[in-house]
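Today's session is about reading a structure prediction critically. Students often jump straight to the picture, but the first step is always the sequence itself: look for stretches that repeat, for charged clusters, for runs of hydrophobic residues. Only then move on to the predicted structure, which in these notes is written as discrete structure tokens rather than atom positions. Here is the chain we will use throughout the hour.
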Amino acid sequence: DVLGSRGLGDVYKEAYTLSFYSENFKEALEYCNKNSGTSLEKIKATRLHPFSLPSGTQAFKEAWLIIECRTLAIPVLNPDTIYNPEVKAEWKNKPIHKLYIGEILNVWMK
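Below is the predicted structure for this chain, in token form.
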């Protein structure tokens, strides 16, 4: 999450998921990534099937692996703390991001 630019801070404050999909869903996931959920109905456009997890977060039935996490910390990535000089140089003029650190609550695999 670029610091505040995507408005995701509140979404991930309590819990979040890491989901993995087969190549068959690449087009649908790219569509979700490129289009704002506030202006379009992405679910209808992609035909993905959302469902709720025990933490209240959402996932999609099409994922082959879902990892549900409880948020423990959301530190801001500071370029000065990047150890690798090449990576540090790449991040020099990029927007600051947040990192999401969590505890794994559940794992589902198809």
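Discussion point for the tutorial: DSSP finds three helices and five strands in the chain.
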